[in-house]
TrEMBL record:
Name by which UniProt lists this protein: Molybdopterin synthase sulfur carrier subunit
Gene3D superfamilies: 3.10.20.30
Signal peptide: none
InterPro entries in the record: Beta-grasp_dom_sf (IPR012675), Mopterin_synth/thiamin_S_b (IPR016155), ThiS/MoaD-like (IPR003749)
Length: 77
């Protein structure tokens, strides 16, 4: 599964995407846990998960055919 990343997450992983092998589908909560194991540099990073351009909760399933993104908090003025 290719996951789009932005801002501080992008800086920490050194790329605008991360690739994870997660099988056919996975819950968002399990996806987050998998990310923290495979990318320990993201430990403690705060972000929301978007599936097909909509924020989703930890119990939602995502598949490899979905567009998945990690969105860190945005500040502005």
């Amino acid at each position: 599964m290719e996951i789009k990343v932005f801002a501080s997450i992008k800086e920490k992983v050194g790329s605008d995407t991360i690739d994870l092998f997660v099988g056919d589908s996975i819950s968002v909560g399990d996806l987050k846990n998998h990310i923290f194991v495979d990318y320990p540099e993201l430990d403690g990073e705060v972000f929301q998960v978007a599936k097909n351009e909509a924020f989703v909760k930890d119990d939602e399933l995502v598949t490899s055919s979905d567009t998945v993104a990690l969105i860190p908090p945005v500040s502005g003025g």
